[in-house]
Amino acid sequence: MERITKEMTVEEVLDRYPKTTRVFMEFKIPSLVCGEPLWGTVEEVAQRYKVNLAELLNRLNQNLDEKIG
Fold first, then answer.
1. What is the pLDDT of residues 20-69, one digit of tens each?
2. Phi-psi map region of 21: left, alpha, beta (phi>0 left; psi -120 to 50 alpha)
3. pTM score > 0.90 for this model?
4. Dihedral sign for Cα atoms in the order 41, 16, 68, 32
5. Is the pLDDT of residue 2 over 90?
6. CB burial readout 20-54, b (16+ within 10 A) else e
7. Which end of the chain has fewer beta carbons closer than 10 Å to its terminal beta carbon, N or C?
């Protein structure tokens, strides 16, 4: 099973798994800004918004496991 990793870009995650948008929103990370994807890797965005990277990745991958992403 494919997993979301810290090296993946936010754009890549959203392209592959559009419903992960809600996970980014839960962490107060805007995943779309002015209609354009937020640039950077998952790790960079977590650092920028002072979010625990392990928690974010865990939640994103839980979203995949729930078969809704």
1. 989 998 998 876 655 555 678 999 999 999 999 999 999 999 988 776 44
2. alpha
3. no
4. positive
5. no
6. bbebbeebebebeeeeeebeebbebbbeeeebeee
7. N
